[in-house]
Amino acid sequence: MTVSPSIPSFPVPDLGYDPAPNVRDLYTDGITALKGAFSVEWIEQLGEDIDVAFEEARRRPNGAIGRGPKRWYVEIHPEALRGFVELADHPWVRTVSEAVLGPDYRIVEVGFDIPFPGATYQPWHRDFRSTPETYREHRLTSLAFNLTTVDTIEEMGPFEIALGTQFDESPEFDHGMFPPKSFYPRYEERAVRKYPKRGDISARSALTIHRGTKNVSDFKRPVLVLGVDGPEATNAEHHDLAVTKGYWETLPETVRAHLRCPIVDELIPITQKHDIEGLVMGEA
Asked: What is the domain count for the chain?
C-alpha cells in the first residue's frame, strides 16, 4: 500500500525564510539547499578548523574512520569550530529544522567527511537504518546539514543522491542500509550529482540513498556535517558530543535549547563510533 508523506505543519518563528519549499523538497526529493548562506571568508575559517581537527584525529587511534579508500570521517566537539554558533544559529538552519522536526529538535552530530584524491565510488547506501516513523508513516525524524569548504567540480568526486528514495525500505537491504545491486538501476535513474560552492548549505534526509563518487582531481573535498534529530530519533546513540562549562556559558539560548549534550570540565577527544562497515572497501 502506498502511503502519502505526512508533511508536518509545526509552527515556525519568522526568521526571514519561508520553509514551505524546503519542506516540500525534503519530502519529495529528500534534499534541499540554500545558496550563499555564509561568506567565503567564514567558509575559509571552517576549512582551517577542519584541517586542524583532521590532523589531530589522525594522530589518535580511531580518531578518524574510513568511509572508503582515501575517504575519512571525523566527529568533533562543537568547540573545535570557531563558527559553530553562526552555523547552529543560522536562521535557515533553525527554520528548516523546526519546520521538519518541530521546536524540540536536537543537534546530535558535528563532523566532517573528506574524500581525498584517489577516493573511489562508494556503494549506494543510507547513513543508518530507517525507522517505522519513516518507512511506514513517511515522516522525517532527522536531518543532515552539509557545507563544502571548496567549490565543487566534477573531478573532485561530487556527492550523488538518488532523489525520492528516503522512504525506500526492503528486507534485502544489508544491515538496513545497503541495497542489493539489483536495486542500482532505480538509483542510477534518479541520481543527481551536486556541485555546491563555498557558502552554500544543504539539508537532506540521511535516509535518502546516496554515494560519494570518484575523486580524480588533485584536491580534497571536505564537507561538514551537522546532524539534527527530532524527538523520536535516536541517532545521538552513535555520537559523543560534549561541551565545556565555559563554552556552554558563552552560547546563546537559541543554541543551548537544541544542544542537549553533556557539559564537562574537560573535553575528551572523540573515538569514532559511527562505523559504516559497508563503506570501507568502496566500489571498483
From this structure: 1
